[in-house]
Amino acid sequence: MGRAQEIHFQGHHYQVDIVKKMLTEEINLYERRLVIIKRASLKGQEDLVKTYQDMIDSRVTILDQLNRMKHT
Question: Fewer beta carbons within 10 Å, N or C terminal of the chain?
Fold first, then answer.
């Protein structure tokens, strides 16, 4: 592997790690908000719960895919 490719390779995985960290933080934030929403009695609460659950699920799916990635 040439030096330029090696730098790109290392940079790519550094960026992936940053994205994984951001996704993890977002998942935790949305899960905390979801708990609060479920405790409250709000008009349209079911739609809001579904929206937050969908956001959590999509981020978990992306995070799982990134975790399964091989070094390419």
Answer: C
* Contact criterion met (CB below 8 Å) for 37 and 53: no
pTM, two decimal places: 0.71
Which is it for the CA torsion 36, 38, 41, 43, positive or negative? Answer: positive
CA distance 8 to 13: 9
Residue 62 near residue 23 (C-beta atoms within 8 A):
yes
Q: What is the separation, in whole angstroms, between the first and last Cα of the chain? A: 12
> How far lies 18's CA from each of 22, 56, 66, 69, 72, in Å?
6, 18, 11, 15, 17
Residue 27's pLDDT is: 97
Closest by CA position to 23, among listed 64, 59, 53, 67: 59
